[in-house]
Design brief:
2 copies of one chain form a homodimer. By secondary structure, chain A is α+β, with helices and mostly antiparallel strands. Chain A has 16 helices and 16 strands. The first copy, chain A, has 2 domains: about 190 residues, Chloramphenicol Acetyltransferase (2-Layer Sandwich); about 250 residues, Chloramphenicol Acetyltransferase, CATH 3.30.559.30.
Amino acid sequence: MQRLSGTDALFLTMETPEWHQHIAGLTVLDPSTSEDFSFEKAVAHLESRLPLAPKFKWKLKETPLNLDRAVWIEDTNFDLARHIRRAGVPQPGGKVETAELLSQIMTRQLDRRYPLWEFWYLDGLANGRLATVVKFHHCLLDGMAGASLATVLTDLEPDPPPREIPKAKTSAGREPSSAELLARSVLPNMRTPMRIARYTAEAGRRGLALLEFNRTAEDTAPLTGVPTTRWNAEISARRTNAFTSISLEDVKKIRRKYDVKVNDVVLAICSGALREYLLSHDELPEEPLVAGVPVSTRSADDNELNNQIANMNVSLATDEPDPKARLKAIAKSSKASKAMTNAIRAHQIQSIGETAPPLMLNFAIRALARTGALRAMPTVMNTVVSNVPGPPFPLYFAGALTTGMFPGSVITETMGLNITVLSYIDRIDFGLSADPELVPDLWDIADGIPKSLKALMKAGKLGKPTKVEDPFGEPM
Amino acid sequence: MQRLSGTDALFLTMETPEWHQHIAGLTVLDPSTSEDFSFEKAVAHLESRLPLAPKFKWKLKETPLNLDRAVWIEDTNFDLARHIRRAGVPQPGGKVETAELLSQIMTRQLDRRYPLWEFWYLDGLANGRLATVVKFHHCLLDGMAGASLATVLTDLEPDPPPREIPKAKTSAGREPSSAELLARSVLPNMRTPMRIARYTAEAGRRGLALLEFNRTAEDTAPLTGVPTTRWNAEISARRTNAFTSISLEDVKKIRRKYDVKVNDVVLAICSGALREYLLSHDELPEEPLVAGVPVSTRSADDNELNNQIANMNVSLATDEPDPKARLKAIAKSSKASKAMTNAIRAHQIQSIGETAPPLMLNFAIRALARTGALRAMPTVMNTVVSNVPGPPFPLYFAGALTTGMFPGSVITETMGLNITVLSYIDRIDFGLSADPELVPDLWDIADGIPKSLKALMKAGKLGKPTKVEDPFGEPM
């Protein structure tokens, strides 16, 4: 038995049918690198790696009336079959159909009576490909410092030597492999949009020093007076996902040309797509949109999670029609925000979950949710753009080559759109998550991303965008 | 606004995460009879028929603290997209994979914030086939007297003339088509296992006159002292499904040979499969298993639902090793039960939902469930075997030929196995529903059914079973 940390307990308490607290990683696989890849092999692989992530065999025990934080207990009836799901991607098995299935998976809450994760095996993708989805509750990952299931599932070669499985029930003292070290730096970041949105919301409610800083600093994005879009509204229980991919080299070309950061180019590409989308609906706000951008602040010897991620609020300069001018404005705002972020660390905000009495917190949050007070909060950001640097070399799952990795991310009240960006080998993959009742045409935004890249390259006289292979196996 | 009937409200109140109150019909389709069958056409067809089932646009409004029965209100934000789901059947797309996907669909509760149904479109079945699943809450169908969505979705020809859509919000005054009349007589029966199990449980709790009758009547199956099997236990939230098909003509041959009823032959075939299954686990009880068999008692001019279905408890004579002797014992028990059923109608039992104050009922049922009292109830039947006569001619959905229809049925506490049998053209299709934590190897029972038929035919010197086409499109 182990009591949940205050933050983890907060994630549980705040979960409502509309406001899910689970996240997922979808991995597209090409099984042709393995002679005997199959559903059974995938499950066996999963099972063999499970001891490396002991928390995946823990389940919740919530205390009566929520008088205290819930505790983790070992699931003595643990049955892997309860966590394995299988489905096919509808024909023709492209990224649209894969995203549709991921949306269905994301729309459903996890069953709190069992360890809080599911593993989905999806076949029927184009070109013989398939996908796996690991879906897990935010409170399961939080505080795990990288020992997540997703982390331990991949290898750097198709047929790696067997991993040493530790005898201990926790993996605290284990020497991590190089693949794990890599994965630790990449995968835990996938959960940041949620946390950041939460921190920022918290900041908004508590009227922190952040506001004061913001009034006096120049060029930083506003924390009040952020415009509202169609997706900055009350969210429903449903989720929709869309994906797109562009060439990493194209982004680097733009970065070099304008002497900005890769992240600024990513933001400018997203900004162009969002601007065109809102223009086409005749809904572009006069004030520029503001993105929450998670940044890592973790030092090398720091393995605590509560101060490794901070948030920057960056203006997306959507009021600027010229792509070059927009990129420059974003880079300027980003630089100013970075300075602010260094001054005020996010961990000052998080402590509410650790210090407030759980009963009071439960009542307060439920009351806020019921009275709609959370919905009445001012918009503090329009979207999250989370840019996660991924491995520049191939990863394998049970022998099958990973051709792409896409998140099912968390959206929150008044922030019904999330863009998470992951680089992989020579490509940048975009995963968009939204509420379909607010953004029924999410693919229009996704499809606007390569167009936005094209416009930016054209403005910089950098030629045409490089054609990239589709990770879902669809012909170009 | 319309208040739920007491029975419908009871189905809502009794629903727990383990004890689902939804049912589903899976229809396998061969789209080659339609030139332009597609997902979009299927959805358009569904939409065009929706006005014939007005309750599918109603949603629940539960009263605070459940002080009174919930009411139905029109969902003024009705959005068809919320109810449409799409997935592929995993490869190779046979009946095993289709059943696996149906199990996933059945395991999830419906979202009470929207009209209580889902329509699933599943492609990727063998031989170019696909399937649809209509999943709906029991309380949605109850009292609808046949105006269910499933009822209005099929036609007798691939390209029927457009149906007349009534202007009125309810279909009470509408003239039903011949297809509807047919479907009304067939499809509503698919929900009977649940209701019957409930009635019987109710009877068990209340110690009705049934017990008295049973003590004095001869040859009837016992209502107390029913043996317990591995699946007569506490059920989990999970569901598993399995299917099999045999030739209708083979069953009729046996019926003629022994001068019994078709239903007796079906029971004997199930009995043989269950006996072999339990023997192989070395768990065959000494006492014969008892099946609950729903029978229709509705007269032609009677359109009330509350007395149209009754239950017979029939001995499955699983203590009898000889197939012929087993069939004869079942026929005898069945005849005696029929007489008893005619004497005591099920509607005497149902009235509790109509008369008890809702608040008291809520508390009482929740208390029973929480304390495990429901689980401590004696086993009143081992399984339900529901035999539904289906159409002897083809049905079409949006132009696509229906090649098979299989239920996802309800299982209940201490009755974790349901066998629903539907005849269609020249075939009898078996749909088995169970809790995988109690019956992880449900396919062994399903596969035992054709073997049981074979043994019965051999014992009667009736030759070998006829080969039947697989409705899922798999090669023989």
